[in-house]
Write a structure and sequence with these properties.
mainly alpha, 12 helices, 67% helix, globular
Length: 230
């Protein structure tokens, strides 16, 4: 689950907050069962196997997509597309890194589960760290939803919602083989899209001071939703 803490123990005890937080994310899970089946059954991103953090990362992105989508006044269809891709985007992590842990039958099952989840392939591509994706996102053809999806992925480090520059620097330290020019371009794009999202939030009436406040604002809104969940 997203790394959302309880800053006000006067309102709720840690135990009460944990219950509300669990309920909030359980509600998201039940709304996105095809994506959850793809992650857990298809991708085998389970706790016992040591891959639960990847599934929780995807669930965190669903919460971001749901919350940011409302803040931006997106349509129900636009929000759904973002949430589905958020839930599916890292389903193949274990398949890619440990292919020997999957039988042919299991791989066929993953394809069936992916087809059932129906993530938008164009939006799925925005979460990849490839030269072709970077070129598209930097060009004039990138859509508004692609920019949002790209940004969501760049502010999520495992289950933590953070400044995209910090997230990219963490990626640099974890993967020194990554090209500096590529990562610097990712920074530039993240900041550009963050500024666009900020402008849209201001137009939507959101009280926010600067583009750099966007990740914190999203985190705060998720916290507020947790606090009001039944």
């Amino acid at each position: 689950m997203a790394n959302i803490e309880n800053p006000n123990l006067d309102l709720l005890s840690e135990r009460e907050f944990k219950i509300k937080k669990s309920q909030f994310f359980w509600d998201l899970i039940t709304k996105h069962l095809p994506e959850m089946r793809l992650l857990v059954t298809g991708g085998k991103l389970t706790k016992d196997a040591g891959w639960r953090n990847v599934a929780e990362h995807c669930l965190t992105q669903i919460a971001i997509a749901d919350t940011l989508g409302d803040m931006l006044n997106l349509t129900a269809e636009e929000k759904h597309k973002l949430e589905v891709v958020a839930g599916c985007h890292d389903w193949s992590k274990r398949v890619e890194k440990k292919p020997s842990e999957f039988t042919e039958q299991e791989l066929r099952q993953t394809r069936d589960l992916l087809a059932q989840a129906k993530p938008d392939p164009v939006l799925m591509a925005t979460t990849g760290s490839t030269d072709s994706n970077l070129e598209r996102m930097a060009g004039a053809d990138a859509t508004w939803l692609e920019k949002i999806q790209y940004y969501i992925d760049r502010i999520t480090d495992e289950s933590e919602i953070i400044d995209p520059i910090i997230r990219i620097e963490r990626a640099r330290s974890r993967h020194p083989e990554l090209d500096d020019q590529f990562l610097n371009q990712e920074k530039e794009l993240s900041q550009r899209f963050e500024a666009e999202i900020y402008q849209r939030l201001v137009k939507a009436g959101v009280d926010i001071e600067s583009p750099k406040d966007v990740p914190l604002m999203i985190k705060q809104k998720i916290y507020e939703r947790i606090m009001t969940s039944d």
